[in-house]
Amino acid sequence: xxxDTHALTVKSSNINRHVNASRTIHIHxxxxxxxxxxxxxxxxxxxxxxxxxxxxxxxxxxxxxQSAQTTSSSDQQAAAQVLDLLNQYSSDADWDKYFALYRKxxxxxxxxxxxxxxMAEFEHYSRPTKGWRYDLTERxxxxxxxxxxxxxxxxxxxxxxxxxxxxxxxxDGNWKIAQYHLSFPIPNEIAKQITAEIKAANKQ
Length: 204
Fold this sequence. Notes:
alpha+beta, 26% strand
């Protein structure tokens, strides 16, 4: 009987162990299930954020591009107005307004090879004259931040087709001319003839 009782006790102990092990396994499985569910939900949230993020980023970029384009457009319009006023004031010989469109360290390069003038020299040349007229035919503007490069074709009653090129720099919130270069474009067909005459004139 003692042996049988011991055997029953052992069997009972083994059964309890299996039951406890089974409960532990179920508990671990339940914990694992909760963990997997949490990870899946987290993944869905991350996925949703990832899907929203590019859209928000694209919208932000679009807004920045539109803002830059608007700024660039308004800057170029303001710069073009400066160049229009330059031609108007030179035609009217309104030298105070004309030179107010230049930076103080501005440069004017004329059609003669010797004509590279600072503002003091250019004013000294211009003020005694009655002005000059150049009517706009075509203009191109290229902006790099606070700098605008321009080239324009003009028509002069005195000289015909002319070209102005130069640079404007935003100075104290306003566009000012830093350099203006006036030239006479030479058609390719007569380029050698004209340059030969220029060479001859330089030798005199």
